């Protein structure tokens, strides 16, 4: 045997194979970690069934149009702890009909809440009614979508609530959608 073959070390005792393998190993570990981070913090912005969503748009617009016809206006006062609300509803509606308060997170469907409103006083008049709502504390978000609707699905009012602007939200029917077109521009 020659002196060179006796002094040659096996490959795993050299540093260069390990340095060259470190890059791909790091990439695999980072990829697995990013998969779990993405899975934990994924958003629900993409719909699975566009056709079904498209069919519901017409139904939702009819509910908004009905709220315009009934002159329904709602004021929601959210508690400072964001776990309860006082809801005032006015317009042409049946105050004995059950209503829902819907709180929609802008990106996480798991944080959405639907709360049945409870009449605060038994003598609600036909033109103005007061309701209470208690719900799970809302997670932090810059804004929420707040909706009040009747459980029968006839009407609804909805508004974007920007949390930094206070805890009072005024929901009005979407008049701008159903206003007659301006004929003067023709």
From TrEMBL:
Keywords: Membrane, Transmembrane, Transmembrane helix. The chain crosses the membrane at residues 15-37. InterPro entries: FixH. This is FixH family protein.
């Amino acid at each position: 045997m020659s002196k060179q073959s006796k002094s040659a070390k096996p490959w795993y005792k050299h540093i260069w194979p390990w340095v060259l393998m470190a890059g791909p190993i790091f990439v695999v570990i980072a990829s697995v970690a990013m998969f779990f981070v993405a899975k934990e913090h994924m958003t629900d912005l993409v719909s699975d069934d566009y056709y079904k969503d498209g069919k519901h748009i017409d139904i939702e617009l009819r509910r908004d149009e009905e709220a315009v016809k009934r002159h329904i206006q709602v004021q929601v006062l959210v508690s400072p702890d964001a776990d309860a609300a006082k809801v005032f509803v006015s317009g042409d509606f049946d105050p004995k009909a059950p209503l829902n308060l819907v709180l929609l997170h802008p990106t996480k469907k798991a944080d959405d809440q639907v709360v049945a409103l409870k009449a605060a006083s038994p003598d609600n008049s036909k033109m103005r009614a007061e309701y209470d709502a208690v719900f799970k504390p809302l997670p932090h978000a810059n804004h929420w979508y707040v909706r009040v609707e009747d459980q029968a699905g006839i009407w609804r009012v909805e508004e974007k609530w920007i949390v930094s602007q206070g805890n009072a939200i005024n929901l009005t029917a979407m008049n701008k959608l159903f206003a007659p077109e301006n004929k003067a521009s023709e």
